[in-house]
Amino acid sequence: MEDIRFDGGIGLKINNIGFISVVRKKNFSFQFKCGKNKFTIVFVKQGKMKFDFPADGESFIVSEGEIIYIPRSIPYIAEYTEDETITKSIIFGADNETLPSYIPNVPVKKSSKEYSSVFNSITGINMRNTLFLASKAYELLYLMQSKRRFYTKTQKKLFPALNEIYEKYNEKKPVSYYADMCNMSESNFRKLFKEWTGKSPIEFRNMLRIEEAKKLIDSGEFTVEEAAWYVGFNNMSFFYELYNKIKNR
After folding, report:
1. What CA–CA distances, in Å, run from 124 to 19, 121, 133, 197, 204?
2. What is the pLDDT of residues 232-244, one digit of tens each?
3. Is 58 helix (H, G, I), strand (E, B) or coil?
4. Is this model's pTM higher than 0.85 or not?
5. Kind and range of the H or E element at 81?
6. Structure confidence at residue 41 (pLDDT)
7. Distance between CA 123 and CA 3 in Å, rounded?
8. pLDDT at res. 1
9. Other beta carbons less than 10 A from residue 135's beta carbon
């Protein structure tokens, strides 16, 4: 007999959700100079739209059957570029200050029959059912996660360091080592790393260490001291301090 179990958390706490369906004429435009305080996923059912993101210099043309995901607090300008353009949007808020890694932190454009199917399942009957809409928001985020492309050109510069930290989190390399891997000055590396992950390089590495130590301890095959040593901690007082802090978040 096979007994397979999994116990995991979603990590994203949606606190409110809404749905908007509109039809607009060509050249209708609007902007959010400071971005929205919610996340937005727009599906173009018919026609075409243009989205400009001044902060990153990014621009997207979203055509029929495509979606665009816009994180909260991202300034943007949107314009309807064809007559009788029909859009459907799911808009949701979240309690999280720090978002789970599967949530994109940059605008993302996607095209797939799966996305169309999700939005086409939202009808006049269920569009006011918040539980149903929340399930659709999670489904869309899952689809985006399974086909990841969430990075700006600038963020991609961090890849060598991130790969190194993920693979060798137990090694005690200085920040300058990671900066050199990305051909960046240490100050610029620290700044970009903090902007993207919300943590300093050392804080991020310690977080990975604690997460791995918890897995080892929960397995029952390692003592606390063994797990701490295995992931790179020599100071048990410091380990306990970080472990309790991260575990209780």
Report:
1. 11, 10, 12, 39, 45
2. 988 888 888 888 8
3. strand
4. no
5. none
6. 96
7. 39
8. 40
9. 14
